[in-house]
Amino acid sequence: MEAADLTGPDLSQAVWKKSSLSGGSGGNCVEVAGNLPGAVAVRDSKNPAGPVLAFTPGEWSAFLTAVKLNQFD
Predict the structure, then answer these.
(1) ∠68-71-73 over CA atoms, to 5°?
(2) Which member of 9, 19, 26, 40 lies 3.0 to 4.6 Å from 60 by CB, making a disulfide possible if both were Cys?
(3) Res 66 pLDDT > 90
């Protein structure tokens, strides 16, 4: 079994983009950084210093595909 890297990606160069569906009402806001080598990072825009979820590009692509296909409804 291969050891997992628990340090996560280096977020110092992350360029965060807010979801276009977040709107300006202060509701559920998500930001994504897709410019990181080998990782896509996701955070709550209301808490930018809070926790970050990191996915491989393949995992992120699979998630987006499932969302577009309404597999979570």
Answers:
(1) 105
(2) 40
(3) yes
Q: How many CB atoms lie within 10 A of CB 33?
A: 19
* Three-state SS letters, 4-60: CCCCCCCCCCCCCEECCCCCCCCCCCEEEEEEECCEEEEEECCCCCCCEEEECHHHH
50, 43 contact by CB (below 8 A): yes
**How far, in Å, are 7, 23, 56 from residue 53 at the CA level?**
12, 21, 10
* Phi, psi (deg, nearest 5) at residue 49: -90, 0
Residue 47's CB is within 10 A of a number of other CB atoms, namely 9
User: pTM, whole model, 2 decimals?
Assistant: 0.79
